[in-house]
Write a structure and sequence with these properties.
The chain is α+β, with helices and mostly antiparallel strands. The protein contains 4 helices and 9 strands.
Length: 186
């Protein structure tokens, strides 16, 4: 499901670049921690001269944790295992040789998701939506993030995509209890 969201988001950003007639810019889904390693080893050219979309973190949405697993549909009840609601953090990093171009690419990422589309619908087994919100890190946390990624800082922006739902088990059906009988004890 996360891969479907990444495809939707990178496709939306690439469409934004095309409609604004910006052929210089593109969005690539990839591991940003490899950007310095690929430069040294003449590796993956896809992440050069592009905006790289990477997964930074996944967290459970605690506010949605108290969901009740039994639902009534008509006269029958369906029991499901509790769903897991998650938020994911997306890192858009701009890797261009020219710093001004990198800043312009990040500016277009922000304008794309603030002006046009912030809600993404994914049709997998269950239709779901993810809402993108700009996420702010302080300087210390930003430094820690790039240290963990093992690379030099690139112009970047982080978005929080909330709420994806994971419901793995098939529901169990049951009938409505309409009559209670008392059994005599002998």
């Amino acid at each position: 499901m996360i891969n479907i969201l990444f495809d939707e988001i990178s496709g939306k950003l690439n469409d934004h670049y095309r409609t604004k007639n910006l052929p210089l810019f593109k969005c690539t889904v990839g591991d940003i921690s490899m950007h310095d390693k690929n430069s040294e080893a003449a590796g993956d050219v896809d992440i050069d001269e592009s905006v790289i979309l990477s997964l930074v973190s996944i967290e459970e949405e605690n506010a949605m944790k108290n969901n009740y697993p039994i639902k009534q549909i008509g006269s029958s009840f369906i029991q499901e295992k509790s769903a897991v609601y998650i938020n994911i953090y997306l890192l858009f990093s701009s890797k261009y040789k020219n710093y001004d171009t990198a800043l312009e690419a990040i500016s277009h990422v922000i304008s794309c998701f603030q002006v046009s589309k912030k809600v993404f619908f994914m049709a997998n087994d269950v239709e779901q939506e993810a809402i993108l919100n700009l996420h702010n890190l302080g300087f210390e946390n930003l430094n820690n993030l790039w240290t963990v990624l093992g690379g030099r800082y690139l112009p970047s922006v982080i978005y929080k995509a909330r709420i994806l739902i994971y419901q793995q088990s098939p529901p169990l059906n049951g009938a409505l209890i309409t009559d209670i009988r008392e059994k005599e004890l002998m």
